[in-house]
Structures are given as structure tokens and as C-alpha cells.
Specification:
This protein is of the alpha+beta class and 270 residues long. The protein folds into 2 domains: 119 residues, N-terminal domain of MutM-like DNA repair proteins, CATH 3.20.190; 122 residues, Helicase, Ruva Protein, domain 3 (Orthogonal Bundle), CATH 1.10.8.50. Helix content is 24%, strand content 24%. The protein contains 6 helices and 10 strands. The strands form 3 sheets. The protein has a 4-stranded antiparallel sheet, covered by helices on one side. Strand 9 and strand 10 form a beta hairpin. The protein binds a DNA duplex (16 and 16 nucleotides) through loops.
DNA sequence: CCCAACTCCTGGGCGC
DNA sequence: TGCGCCCAGGAGTTGG
């Protein structure tokens, strides 16, 4: 599932190509989740940005195209249209160089969505509107993160997935970060010391994910259709029943607030 | 405001 | 070989 590192990888790959590209033609699946894709025909694009797990492209008429990849979404840039029955939206664009390319949004399970809004107008997008700070924002310090965590009384794992204390963390990187910080996913109150450790761990697992071009378990591919390699360096996610890499106890898995969670019962005690 | 429950979706894995 | 069942889960929606 695309989380911050996967979305960041795509952003880095095609952001520059989109600058000053003109949208010549577009079409989409008929679902209202995707039809806004058609609204930007005739505009010129700006850079592609990332906010949490959202991709945002500005247009030259003061709007923004917002893409969320959901569970199985892929955004890719190709020279000729791909034979792919799961393409939910596509845009034919003319790059600044004069070359024509196709930006394709493919999404088997249709959990992704596309929106077009006036610049910065996210009032109809609850998650984006109340999103916490970017993990690599230098202004995000230990004190702020700790205070953000304390705003909710929910399980820390669930709190992270809400995108409110910090942006961009999903199920995989949440389990990874909690393992590294040795925090029980069901903990509800986090000491300042533990919060500091968690922030370090989040930054570390996300950076490693970016460095590895994302985690490809099943569906994730980058903007050129390539797999990431971070799945080879996971310490918690998907390791239920296997030995903890730190203490050799058997890793445990359970559903916490409807999300599968894997942790070490020995070194992630409450 | 917060939170919990429900909803959206389909390929793939498994038991029989 | 194929059928039925279940699982993966981010975020939007609804209702308390």
C-alpha cells in the first residue's frame, strides 16, 4: 500500500517532467472518485508536490489536481498508453520539450481517488485538511510531536494512522517504527522519552523506505513501473510467527482497531 | 469536537 | 478445475 516513501518516490521521478506540461486530453472511469480527472484538460501543470500520502499538481488556472493512490493505485508516466484494464484515469500531456506522454492512474481496487480543487481549498478533504506535520519538516521537534500524540486517547498505532500527529505513516511503516522505538501498538499514553524515540524511528523507517524506492509487497510500482526493494528490510510488518530480530521471541499479530498489527510481545511491552 | 462502525473494491489464497 | 469464503486496508461517511 503506498505510504509516504512510495508516494515520495513517484513524486521525485516525474515532478520535473510535469512542469509546464499542457493537458491535451483526459478521460476516466465513470465513478465520481475519478471523473474530476477530466476537469483539467486545457491547463498547464506545475510541479508535482506531496503532502502526506497525497500527490498534488497545480494548474495554471489556480486549481490543484489531487491524487490519492489508496491501496492499489499506481501513477505512471509512459510514452504510449499501457494495455491495462484497471486504468481509472489518464491524461495526455505535451511536455515542455514538445514530446507527448501519457500520465496513467491505474487502480485495481478503486480505493484511490482524484479531486480538483481551488488552490489550497481542502475543506471537503477531511484528512488533508487536518493533516499533521510532514515527518521531515525541520520545525517538527520532539516537544511538538509529543503534544500531537497526546491529543488523542486512542491506541498509538491508530493515532499514527489518523495522519494527525504526523503525516504519511500507514500500516507498514507504523508497525516498523513502533518496533524500532520498542513501543507497544496498543499503548495509549506515551512518555516524552518514548515519543522522542518514536519520532526518530518514524524518520528512520521512512527515509530507509525512500532510499529503497518504496516497499513492494504486491501492487506497488513506481512511476516507471518498477518495484521497490524495502520489503527486504522489514522488521515487524508481515513477520508474525517469526523470531524478533532483536530478542528472538516469536512476533505476534492481532487486529487493532480493524488493522492487522504485528509486534514483539517481549521488547514492545506496554 | 472526538470516536466507532461501516463502506468502498477485487485479486489471490485456501479448503474442499 | 472451480466454487465459496475470507483477507488486504486508507480514507470518506454517518451517526452517537
Amino acid at each position: 500500500m503506498p505510504e509516504l516513501p512510495e508516494v515520495e518516490t513517484i513524486k521525485r521521478q516525474i515532478s520535473e517532467d510535469l512542469v509546464d506540461a499542457e493537458v491535451i486530453e483526459a478521460d476516466s472511469h465513470e465513478s465520481a472518485k475519478f471523473t474530476p480527472a477530466r476537469e483539467i484538460v486545457g491547463t498547464k501543470l506545475g510541479e508535482l508536490r506531496r503532502r502526506g500520502k497525497f500527490l498534488i499538481v497545480s494548474t495554471d488556472d489556480d486549481r490543484e489536481l489531487i491524487v490519492h493512490l489508496g491501496m492499489t493505485g499506481k501513477l505512471r508516466l509512459v510514452e504510449t498508453p499501457t494495455e491495462d484494464k484497471y486504468i481509472r484515469a489518464w491524461w495526455k500531456i505535451e511536455l515542455e520539450s514538445g514530446a507527448y506522454q501519457f500520465l496513467e492512474f491505474s487502480d485495481v481496487r478503486r480505493f484511490g481517488r482524484i479531486k480538483v480543487v481551488k488552490t489550497g481549498d481542502y475543506k471537503d478533504m477531511a484528512t488533508l485538511n487536518s493533516m499533521g506535520p510532514e515527518p521531515f519538516d525541520e520545525k517538527l521537534d520532539n516537544q511538538t510531536f509529543w503534544e500531537n500524540l497526546k491529543k488523542s486517547k486512542r491506541h498509538v498505532k491508530t493515532n499514527l494512522l489518523s495522519q494527525k500527529p504526523i503525516a504519511g505513516v500507514g500500516n507498514i511503516y507504523a508497525d516498523e517504527a513502533l518496533w524500532h522505538a520498542q513501543i507497544n501498538p496498543k499503548a495509549k499514553t506515551i512518555s516524552k522519552k518514548k515519543a522522542e524515540k518514536l519520532l526518530v524511528a518514524i524518520r528512520q523507517v521512512l527515509q530507509q523506505g525512500i532510499d529503497n524506492g518504496g516497499t513492494t509487497l504486491r501492487d506497488y510500482r513506481d512511476a516507471y513501473g518498477q518495484s521497490g526493494s524495502n520489503q527486504r528490510q522489514l522488521y515487524a510488518y508481515g513477520r508474525s510467527g517469526e523470531e524478533c530480530f532483536r530478542c528472538s521471541k516469536i512476533m505476534k499479530s492481532d487486529t487493532i482497531d480493524a488493522r492487522t498489527t504485528t509486534w514483539c510481545p517481549q521488547c514492545q511491552k506496554k
